[in-house]
Write a structure and sequence with these properties.
Layout lengths: L2 H19 L7 H8 L7 E11 L21 E7 L2 E6 L4 E5 L4 E5 L15 E7 L4 E6 L4 E6 L5 E5 L13 E8 L5 E7 L14 E5 L6 E7 L14 E7 L2 E6 L4 E5 L6 E5 L12 E6 L5 E6 L4 E6 L5 E5 L23 E5 L2 E6 L4 E6 L3 E7 L6 E3 L8 E2 L4 E5 L9 E7 L3
Antiparallel strand pairs: 1-25, 1-29, 2-3, 3-4, 4-5, 6-7, 7-8, 8-9, 10-11, 11-12, 12-13, 14-15, 15-16, 16-17, 18-19, 19-20, 20-21, 22-23, 23-24, 25-28, 26-29, 27-28
Length: 426
């Protein structure tokens, strides 16, 4: 056997061991027959392909800020698409605006204590923008207020909540984590704690949903309350942290109950609930932000406890895929690599199977693809007269694009490839 073939066998054996360690298929029978033939010459060779780059974007906003207030993104809580812009709602600074290429456009609003400053918006839990009515509404969660502004002038319009945390009280909020625009133009508020804002204050201290008049800031109705006996699957809420109108339905993340509830906003009848999906090993979800995928047949849920996003079938409620590496200690400072998040809060679909995630603990926005994989580009040159042996290629490798799908956690360590090639018969 020639020296070229011997070198190939050594390279290929090493590559096969690496492939098996990563779950790739065993050597094809065809290639085994070729290598076993002692009469073969240089008709089979090993071609080196060098890893070029991973096709997953990380912009300046992916860099951890250097101090408590400096930097473009600081403890992001909420993400919104506003026309051609992406707005990032930060807990510890003003709302940051970016274009679709993640170029920074400036800040909206003023970071200040809303209980002491008429136009302050600190302690942001969520926000919603209604350009048609020149309206921005911010849930100042840690200051127990919902505050409305003019989108164009940034002037404050009204407040709901008196800034005092309390279980009781007409017009009082207790950790309002989320706001959303209802089909009738009013504002839906999710208060994590409290017993209601109008129509009495019965129930438990596990939060409520309230409708607020968008023009005046007055309470219209307490839509759903928590109950010491009933649970989200009975139609009530329990510690709601995120509300979103998706596909004409109102989705509510009940954090403490580990359940997402879906309501008809016309009647507020419960239509369905989502909990830990079948077919996925996960201790708990701890749902926060959510959205629908491009096709509208999967609900994408931010699972706070394992610090991932997980896709659940809208119709069958089964596990579909997840992105991010599971970890149950979101305080670890080491969780800042590609695909690793710390206590994420919100998710926004970007199209083409990409999602922006408010990576709260890492002070960044992370862009993740579906299925927890991203394509890595490879470059190499086949000698004239040779072709790759298709059934000997690594799993996930596409010879037409010279890319291989790699788990996000393995992108930084993706090695060069040695691919089997054969001489084209004359």
């Amino acid at each position: 056997m020639s020296e070229t073939i011997k070198a190939f066998v050594a390279d290929f054996a090493a590559n096969e061991r690496a492939k098996r360690a990563m779950g790739y298929s065993d050597t094809s029978q065809r290639l085994q027959r070729i290598l076993a033939d002692s009469q073969v010459d240089d008709s089979v060779i090993s071609v080196k392909y060098t890893r070029q780059s991973a096709q997953i974007t990380e912009s300046d906003i992916g860099v951890k800020v250097s101090s408590y207030r400096d930097g473009l993104v600081n403890r992001p809580r909420a993400l919104r698409q506003v026309g051609n812009e992406i707005w990032v709602g930060n807990y510890s600074t003003a709302i940051a605006r970016f274009d679709e290429n993640w170029s920074f456009l400036g800040y909206w609003g003023r970071y200040a204590n809303p209980n002491n400053t008429p136009d302050g918006q600190a302690g942001l839990g969520d926000f919603v923008v209604d350009p048609a009515n020149d309206l921005v509404v911010i849930a100042c969660q840690s200051y127990h207020r919902v505050r409305a502004f003019s989108m164009t002038t940034m002037q404050p319009l009204w407040d709901f909540g008196d800034g005092i945390a309390g279980n009781y009280g007409q017009g009082r909020l207790y950790n309002p984590y989320s706001v959303e625009l209802l089909p009738n133009g009013n504002i839906l508020v999710a208060s994590y704690n409290g017993r209601g804002v109008v129509g009495g204050t019965t129930g438990s201290n596990d939060g409520f949903l309230a409708e607020i008049d968008a023009a005046t800031g007055n309470a219209v109705a307490c839509i759903k309350k928590s109950n010491t006996v009933k649970a989200p699957w009975d139609g009530d809420v329990r510690n709601p942290v995120r509300v979103r109108m998706l596909g004409g339905k109102a989705y509510v993340s009940n954090y403490a109950a580990d359940v997402v509830s879906v309501y008809d906003p016309a009647t507020w009848n419960l239509e369905t609930t989502y909990s830990k999906p079948a077919g996925f090993d996960i201790q708990s979800v701890g749902p926060r932000g959510l959205c629908l995928n491009d096709a509208g047949d999967q609900v994408i849920v931010v699972a706070r406890e394992p610090s991932i996003i997980v896709a659940i079938g809208v119709a069958d409620h089964d596990y579909k895929w997840h992105a991010g590496e599971q970890a149950f200690d979101d305080r670890s400072s080491a969780r800042n690599l590609a695909g690793e998040m710390q206590g994420p809060w919100d998710v926004l679909p970007l199209g083409n199977g990409l999602y922006a995630v408010a990576d709260y603990g890492n002070n960044r926005v992370t862009v993740l693809p579906e299925f927890n994989y991203a394509p890595v580009q490879y470059q190499g040159a086949l000698p004239a007269g040779y072709r790759l042996i298709d059934e000997g290629l690594p799993q996930g490798f596409d010879p037409s694009t010279m890319t291989r799908l790699v788990r996000l956690s393995e992108i930084d360590d993706a090695a060069d490839l040695y691919l089997p090639a054969e001489r084209i018969p004359q």
